[in-house]
Amino acid sequence: MASSIVLFGPPGAGKGTQAGNIVSITGKPQVSTGDMLRAAVSAGTELGVEAKGYMDSGQLVPDEVIIGLIEERLTQSDAVNGVLFDGFPRTVAQAEALSHIAEVSIVIAIEVPDARIVERICGRYTCGGCGAVYHDTFNPTTNPGVCDHCGHTDMKRRADDNEGTVRNRLEAYHAQTSPLAAWYRKRDLFSAVNGDQGIDLVGEEIAALL
Ligand code: AP5
Ligand code: MG
Ligand code: ZN
Fold it and tell me: pTM, whole model, 2 decimals?
């Protein structure tokens, strides 16, 4: 049966970084609510206008907006064999809504201590061509400013990647998202990996779960 995977973890845990590998292993498309919301903000859609204020201040976008977005995404043909959710669900209400529309086979939590998060987020940049994720110190491009994967030269930094907003995102994570760990543990779906080690080692731990 078509089943989906949930990538779970605090901001900067490495969800986006690890997603590519999981997509190659499983063939399931990545569904990142953060990326979908950023696309809506850039396009200036009604959704983007509504979401921008929440995102810029590091708060969660309201559940009904996110659930609507996911319901629509799951009707697309590439989702029939399940997807890789990145950054969704983030509240118990989102997980409950998801349980009615898709089967989740595993929740992979990337665990990273808070103390590591700010340095990860503040050094992040992303390829504007293919979305590959880099870091000034921990994962730079081989040639400065040139994407290793697609050769594009327009590297982007996110509007919410600053120290003040990161602290609010972490607070939102602890208050609203981390309770989901117990919710999924109770359903025997939760597996944690150590995200506080090299990118390749995190990838190996994740691959062993798939
Ligand atoms: P979203 O885009 O999901 O952001 P996030 O959860 O804060 O997570 P990030 O994308 O910041 O981190 P990541 O875990 O993907 O880390 P990455 O791989 O990039 O959400 C943004 C906003 O949208 C939210 O604040 C909210 O407003 C809204 N939103 C989205 N989904 C929502 C939902 N479901 N409900 C409500 N609101 C929602 O890595 C980070 C950096 O670390 C990179 O530079 C990377 O190179 C580096 N790095 C990665 N792994 C390692 C490693 N092992 N060692 C060293 N460096 C590493
Ligand atoms: Mg991400
Ligand atoms: Zn690229």
Answer: 0.96
